Amino acid sequence: MRRSFLAVALSAALVTTPSAWAASDTTPAAPQETAAQNPATKDPATKGTAPDASDLLFEQPQMKNTAPGSTLTYDYARRSGIERGPYGPPLSDAIKLTVEPGKSAESRDIRVQMFSGGNRLPAGPFTDMPGNPVLSLFLENHLKGLASLLEANPRYIKNAIRKGLREKATVTPMQVSFKGRTVEGWRVEMKPFAGDPQSERMRGFETITYTFVVAPDVPGEIVSIQARALKPDGGELLEERLDYDQKDS
After folding, report:
1. If exposure means fewest CB atoms within 10 Å of the residue's CB, which of 125, 133, 134, 208 is most exposed?
2. Residue whose C-alpha is closest to residue 148's, from 68, 87, 96
3. Cut 0.70: pTM above it
4. pLDDT per residue over 132-185, tens digit each?
5. In degrees, to the nearest 5, what angle opens at C-alpha 164 toward C-alphas 137 and 147?
6. Cβ-based neighbours of 185, under 8 Å, separated by 6 or more
7. For the CA atoms of the chain, what is the radius of gyration?
């Protein structure tokens, strides 16, 4: 029964849209961490303010530069240094988005292949989407694994990540290599559980760092996503990442 319930919950989670991750949950699942000032800094190259992390990741029309009829492929990898841990052996697979026209010039209808073979998970489809759903697909899948490992309320973890994007993220300009040329992009980095009141229960995962790289000139704009946690001795608790496969563009 529990296995069936989790399968249904996971299936439902993987249709979540990017805007659901950007939204605030007004009903706290647990005591909230102390607020921190948003450390977004000035871009010395443009003398302008770096964009807000949540807006950059979840509120932009990221699919507008993706041609209908194309397929975006993202290479996925996960490995964990937890001996006999719940993540099992290293996993390498892919998420594929098949893109068709939406109702507006900036939106797309998107079919999803979330992994392959025995790893395949139900996900999507997404209708009339301006944002790239691969971001929420990665985060929802990551959230389920982390909540199961920590025996934690998934909503508490999700709220911490949301809050981290609003209040703890650093956003810095960077250059991205794309199909033999260099394009401008942004790097978003945060540690949402640093200073969290529940950190003593997180088994070392209070150190987890999330890194997102986006570039407006790359189809779908999402270049890479990484979630990484280290042991005190520098060993790896978890590395989970997604990378845009440039061969499909």
Report:
1. 125
2. 87
3. yes
4. 999 999 999 999 989 988 888 899 999 999 999 999 999 999 999 998 899 999
5. 50
6. 173, 174, 175, 176, 213, 214, 215, 216, 218, 223
7. 18
* Structural tokens at position 93: 């697979």
> Nearest 5°: CA angle at 105, between 100 and 111?
20
Q: What is the pLDDT of residue 198?
A: 79
List the structure tokens of 36.
């921190």
Q: What is the pLDDT of residues 190-239, one digit of tens each?
A: 999 988 887 788 888 999 999 999 999 999 999 999 999 998 887 889 99
Distance CA 124, CA 197 (A): 35
